[in-house]
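Feature request, filed as a ticket because there's no other form

It would be nice if the structure record came with a short human-readable summary line next to the tokens. Right now we just get the raw output. Example of a typical job, pasted below so the devs can see what we mean:
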Amino acid sequence: MALTIGDGLSDSHTSCALLEISPIFDCMESSLMGNRVDNKKFTWVIKNFSTLQSEKIYSDKFVISGCKWRLLAFPKGDKVKCLSLYLEVADFKSLPSGWRRNVEFTITLVKQFCEKFSLAKVTQHWLDHKVPDWGFKSMIPLTTLHDKDGGFLVNDELKIVAEVDVLEVIGKLDVPGESEEETQPVKKIKQNDDGAVSSDLLKEIPGDLVDVNGFQVLPSQVGFARRIFEKHPETASECRTKNQDLRTSYMNVLISVIKMLFKGPEEHSKDDLSDAEAALAYMTHVGFKLDWLEKQHEEVKERMKKCARVCEIEKQLHDLEHKCKDLKAQLNKEKAEILEATAPDLFFIDVV
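Raw output as currently delivered:
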């Protein structure tokens, strides 16, 4: 997958503060778009892309980390000859004064015949009432996007995936009950004698840390951490440090590596696996026993190799099918020319 880090290619659609969605466009959204939210990922499938007449189109609204978002696309470019894509805070005009959101996000254009070669761009920005959206004015040249052999448009459908990581929120969340209005100081609480944590307590103060086997973790990580120690009790038996901040960091790294390794093979990159390998080596150095996870890492590497080979074969097959189609067309043309050249212009009796 091609990956670009935001480095000045990221932009705000500066006129978006004046945008309004008409009822006509609301109908267009439901009929032309296919949408799916999966954890921190939102998938937007735009149908009949090449026939769209609107200057700009919106995805459905979606919720990630308690915040409502939507994607904004310019199919013919935002004053450039490229597809322009932005992440926008949905309903930003109705939010209370002073709201701000720090977000890091990736927007991926899926290459549908082989997702491994998809185009992804990453950026991070603070959004507020003055800058309610951010993204990529020049996501991909329109000529590349519309190339019939490019793989981005298949059956005139464009697939876009947005992965959103909300780093900080100032002001209320859009979905009630998910967080306090402002960021609260981090507190630490212990499990009950039976190892359980009160669900009411977790709902009341979701930012608190919970002690699991001597590691302070977020309430959302309690079940995950508990399963690690139940299935692999020796995992942290030789962890050397007693510093709780470091132990919390170690557990965050461990959980992140596990989640990454158990994604689908098409979602991995070589950089992912290199980062995971380095993290596992470091965790082993500080005393974690991760043979079971290293085994999973090797299995993922093998699956990735097979996936890469399948993608390569699919690409070769795609190229061969295209070449075969061209050869058939050339063959039919030359046959027609031969028939035309051998057809008699005069009857035999006219010659003899």
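Something like this underneath would help us a lot:
Residues 4-9, 14-33, 177-207 have pLDDT under 50 and may be disordered.
The radius of gyration is 27 Å.
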